[in-house]
Input
Amino acid sequence: MPSNPHVPDRIVLLDGPLGTELTARGVPTPLPGWSAGALLTHPEEVLAIHTAYAKAGAEVLTANTFRTQPRWFPEDWEALTHLALRLAREGLAGRQGRVAGSIAPLEDCYRPDLSPKEPRDEHRLLARALAEGGADLILVETFPHPGEALIALQEALATGLPVWFSLTAGPEADLLSPAEMRPVFAEAAGLGAQALLVNCLPARVVLDYLPVLQGHGLPFGAYANAGHADEGMGWRPDPLAADRYAALAREWGDAGACILGSCCGTGPAHIRALNRVPGVRPQVLD
Output
């Protein structure tokens, strides 16, 4: 593990995705609201998923705010944002842990060409709502567009909360190359991000991206995809993938990553498997 005092002396576990688990539980997640719609229709399932991740060992639960933006829920986006934070907090159920508020691209996280020209005001609104709603930190995540990502980071930092910053290369690893990410991470570190990550990319390519996260004196890590893209429902999980995913994550830890979680196509089983990665303090409680 790195000796820098800003870097944890052990691996911190994030949780996994909500969308995959909602689909597995038969909860509809139609566009454009996607997983956020479950806050209106099935809040009890959102809470159950958070609880499952906490029991599997996750120390950071990410609230279901990936799509609670004014453009998708103009009448009740703020109430949904606060509800999402409250459900994540309840999912910890008294356990040690933190709640992260998610800020995601305003449009499709796999379509950087759709990134709005003026995204600042919308990201500012959500960032403030996350802070007012009691988030412990803000996770600026799944951005394929560097410009929008850095604007979201600036607005998140303006709240005074710790901010973790994550870019995506996309499900085929063809949206951003490691070389394209390198200067973005350098700028994010200079602005004040407290951790650097990659997410929502194939687990098999994460090692190619870790070098561009290094050298900034910050904790870094990854939460990647597993399984297969399935148009219409998001992702189809591979029930045998958890141990394979953990084996890859072990390599990320060996390369210095100290924040690990999982993304599309995964679930609590993957987080439970990550408890066996060296450097993780086992957190399984059920």
Summary: The chain has a mean pLDDT of 92. The CA atoms of residues 146 and 180 lie 9 Å apart. The two ends are 29 Å apart (CA to CA).
